[in-house]
Each structure stands twice: as C-alpha cells, then as structure tokens.
Design brief:
Jelly Rolls; globular; 167 residues; 2 helices; five-stranded antiparallel sheet; 12 strands
Amino acid sequence: MIITPRVFEDPRGFFMETFNARDAGAAGLPVEYVQDNHSRSSHAVLRGLHYQYPQWQGKLIRVVSGEIYDVAVDIRPHSATRGQWVGIYLSSDNKRQIYVPEGFAHGFCVTSDAADVVYKCTTMYEPSQDRCISWNDPDIGIEWPLQETLVSEKDARGTPLREHVLA
C-alpha cells in the first residue's frame, strides 16, 4: 500500500503526520509497531530482497533524506501473485511511504547521492529467521533503475525465490 501523507507547507518549512493509528487502522494497516529502524546508504547501494520467516514482518517505510527505488515482492506460498513485484520511488521530496505487508520480501536501491530510510516493523527482528532472495532473480525480473549497484556479501549470496520453501 502506498501512502501519500498530507503535507502542510509554508515559508517556514512543512509539517506532516508520518503515522496516525486511527487513520492507519481505517485504511486496514497495522496500528502497532514494535521496532523502528534507520539506515543510511550511499548512491547505488542496493539492499534486499529481505524477509523474515516464519515470524513475518510488516514494514512501514519512508525516506527522510535522498531518494530510493523501493521494491516489494509477493512471496506468500499460495498467493496467485507470488513472485510479482511493485516498485516506487520514495524520497524526502515526495514524502510518500509504502507499507510492505507480512508475506512480502523488501529491497531498495539508492538513486540519490545518499539516502536515509526509516521504517517501522510489526515484529521484532530475529536474526535466525532472516532470509534473502536474490535481488536480480530472473524469475522475478525486477527492473532496477541503476545498471551498477553495490550489494553486501549477504545480499550477493541471496538465492532465487524458487529455492525458498515456505509453509
């Protein structure tokens, strides 16, 4: 789900609500989060595709500086849209947010000089449940906006979705 908050701007700057439990609940989003994370990445860094299993995590993601191309991939075992993805630019300028639900893998690449990404999680991070799908899995076919990317060793070792057996 893509969220475009109302932004109130004037010559002094702007104000916006980044989260409101009443409005989130009315839109069908979770209203309880147990962990907030903040990452800073340089240009062309690609993170993902990450998920946690069997204790899934939902994530509410936004960018506080810079710009990223953010991707969510449906990996739910019996979903008619398993393996399909959606991508959206999130930036400090457009102020959009995306909710990546449980049962989806998540990744992003930085299209600006650097980007600060913050996100709320519905469950605690459990290192033993951390999983990684290949960011360039040809069966998924994500159209990343950059030809050259920088990935971590962990992300370089990601495996194709077809090797991820989920109940």
